[in-house]
Amino acid sequence: MTIRGRHLLGIEHLGPDEINSILDLADDYARLNRSRSKRSTALASLTQINMFFENSTRTQASFEIAGKRLGADVMNMSMQASSIKKGETLVDTALTLNAMHPDLLIVRHPHSGAVDLLAQKVNCAVLNAGDGKHEHPTQALLDALTIRRAKGRLHRLNIAICGDISHSRVARSNIMLLGKMENRIRLIGPPTLMPSQISEFGVEVYDDMNEGLKDVDVVMMLRLQKERMDGGFIPSEREFYHRYGLDAEKLALAKDDAIVMHPGPMNRGVEIDGTLADDINRSVIQEQVEMGVAVRMAAMDLLARNLKNSRAETGVMV
Ligand code: NCD
């Protein structure tokens, strides 16, 4: 089980073998997380810093829990209270932290490309926890693990990704990952929420849920990313829910055993019916959260192995 390189910046850079390595190890960690002790020493003596320049509940909490279960010293930087507020640039903040010799930096930032830039300036492993509209690799990996466990495979599935595609890093990373694993992907949403270069994605595009959901195995709903919108992309939330919100009636068009996913945070009654989201026979939303911890443990473990190997080879801190 290995992945190449020092960082995890996006699904774009991963091959199917590396994706399988992360998911296989994450399956082991999912088992550990259900056991009584929940402890490993994979990150013992390593320092992990979480830098979240954008709000987060699930992702930040799961990276923190993942690091602690693996024995790392974990520090959460409060970016609201940091010198960024005093005008310090992202790169200066990164260099300051770098001088404290962290081993793993977990970064979320509102600007696409900011995490890649930061990774070029530091000596440790950087994990992208979401950059703007660009990528959210650990979300796509945890979604993949959830699908693989529910469906018994991660290929030749019909998967619908629905709603606000154009502002969603979750959609981008998922389209790449699920495409690399040879699934058929349908994007469903209003034309105003579809990215302009959609034809390059190798997907089918629908603006009608009733057509797009027919016979799919997986229905992945997305939140309307209002913080990334600067105008009227939808007539009203009510109208959006009517046409694109997932409820039992629309789900009936999918396969009988189709699963319902959402990365959270979800807006009940905007993109998904609350009762459906809580229906444990159809919704795997809580499993997604559970797999989030396991996938982040696996990704950090594999990157820490690379870090240790390169340090052993060069005999210096890299
Ligand atoms: C997603 C994100 O931040 O991109 N949430 C998450 O990581 N669980 C999706 C979202 O904010 O809608």
Key terms:
single chain, 318 residues, alpha/beta, 5-stranded parallel beta sheet, 4-stranded parallel beta sheet, binds N-carbamoyl-L-aspartate
Walk me through this protein's architecture.
With 318 residues, the chain is of the alpha/beta class. The chain contains eleven helices and nine strands. The strands form two sheets. The protein has a five-stranded parallel sheet with strand order 7-6-5-8-9. Strands 2-1-3-4 form a four-stranded parallel sheet. Helix 1 (16-34) packs across helix 11 (285-314), helix 5 (137-151) packs across helix 6 (169-180) and helix 5 crosses helix 11. The longest helix has 30 residues, at 285-314. The protein is globular and about 60 Å long. The relative contact order is 0.17. Residues 58-59, 130, 136, 139, 169-170, 223, 225, 263-264 line the site of N-carbamoyl-L-aspartate (NCD).
Q: What is the fold's blueprint, element by element?
A:
Blueprint: H1 16-34, E1 47-52, H2 58-69, E2 73-77, H3 90-98, E3 104-109, H4 114-119, E4 125-131, H5 137-151, E5 158-162, H6 169-180, E6 184-188, E7 204-206, H7 209-212, E8 218-221, H8 237-244, H9 248-251, E9 259-261, H10 274-277, H11 285-314
Parallel strand pairs: 1-2, 1-3, 3-4, 5-6, 5-8, 6-7, 8-9
The site of N-carbamoyl-L-aspartate (NCD) has 11 residues, from α2 and α6.
